User: Fold Putative glycosyl transferase, group 1 from Leptospirillum ferrooxidans.
Amino acid sequence: MDSNDSKTPQIADICLILEGTYPYVTGGVSSWTHQLITNLPEFTFHLHCLIAEKEPGPWLFPRPNNVIGVSNLSLGQWSSENEEPQEPLDDNEEHELLGVIESFHRDLLSGSPEAFERLFGIFYRMGLSSKLFTTLSSGREAWNLIQKFYKEQFSQESFIDFFWMWRTTHLPLFSLLASPVPKARLYHSLASGYAGILGVMGKLAYERPLILTEHGLYTRERKIEIALAQWIGSGNARDDMTIRPINTSVKGFWMRIFEQLGRIVYHYSDHIITLFEGNRRIQIRDGAPAEKTKVIPNGIRVFSETKIREVQKAQSEKLSVAMIGRVVPIKDIKTFIQACRIVRDQLPEVQFLIMGPMNQDPEYVKECQNLVEILKMGDAIQFTGSVRVEDYLPKMDLLVLTSLSEAQPLVVMEGAIFGVPSVTTRVGACNELINGRTREDVALGPGGIVTSVGNPEETALAMLKILKDDGLRKRMGYAARLRMERFYREDLLFEAYRTLYQEGIG
Assistant:
């Protein structure tokens, strides 16, 4: 479950709770986190990291001096798996625990967040023991409870679907509840969902404030992933070995669980931060108290014009287009690849780069690579893996982002600093970053083109419009850079969080 850095028993000012990001994964949220820590040296930080594997990978960032502790929790792994097998709880403890879980589950689906406090209380009182988790993962009464919920709500559907949905959603939650949270003066979760639940646990255990920052909207992204899931080894009432599409009602149940976990985190958070106004409105719609919400945009460091001129590409180089991001379904890399094929038909000399981590969804990576081969684009599209984007951006002519969901993508801002225009999907703050937010901002002109989600033809047309017109490309690049200089400065970001931290630590 964990791999902890315990060099010092010192209590950190801030416990940052991270899920699948910093410091082991590169990307926009990870870069943002590193900037925040290094630019607030007066605070000490403990990193509490949810990771996918049993053991963490190497640090992909220099370790800041003010990070005084690191702990890792592998979601789905249990800390005692290498110890002697544990007996389950005794009958009285088991009956009490499962009664609270049943009550919590009913309250969860009815929209009541307070039941979580009772559930956490019993886990905390029982000592966060492995006996408790053994009871929940393989105990007879837990099995009976699963059957009871199935018969009440899904008796006409596949039990196999329901069973694996239950384990997929509940066992990680139980694993979190049965894990310790580092003591700190303030908790700051960078996502709702499971990371947010850990933040709530810290708040309840130590009676300290909780800040939630949502770059993307966790619940919305999980719902997209569930909706995109096509197949599961499952059955129906008559044939438990059938492979068929996941039932819509089971998907809906799965989505509701994530929705209510998000509501729990909103309920207990003292401040709920997002990056742009559109997301704040969605947070309120999804249950966040309006008075707790606040917009703090991403900030960007602006280089001098002299430095940019020093790294500009030579005029004789070929046109280069980059898609920067993780190679995962939420980034919709396949739409970008299809758009590249259309562009190549008219501009055969253009080179395309897909820059970002390739280890998070190997199956999807393989599908993308196969698509490149099918479209005969192997000589034009390069997968670089993780790179230092600042080494590539000055040489790019255009950035493309085909994501299904984004918040305020840092890569668009980074490209703008180097005068690189972008073609993005109409998600998150992309329209504000490209076309402006206020009247003064809009007056600067567009810094690129915004297109529909999942539309390779429209994406390709936007790419061609910019690539074929040198003057337009330069004007858009200039407007993009000017927008960053005037309206997106990193010093405003750091000052906003400095104030929140000072108030919370008190």
User: Anything to note?
Assistant: Residues 36 and 494 are 7 Å apart (CA to CA). Residues 305-487 form a domain with the Rossmann fold fold (CATH 3.40.50.2000). The two ends are 33 Å apart (CA to CA).
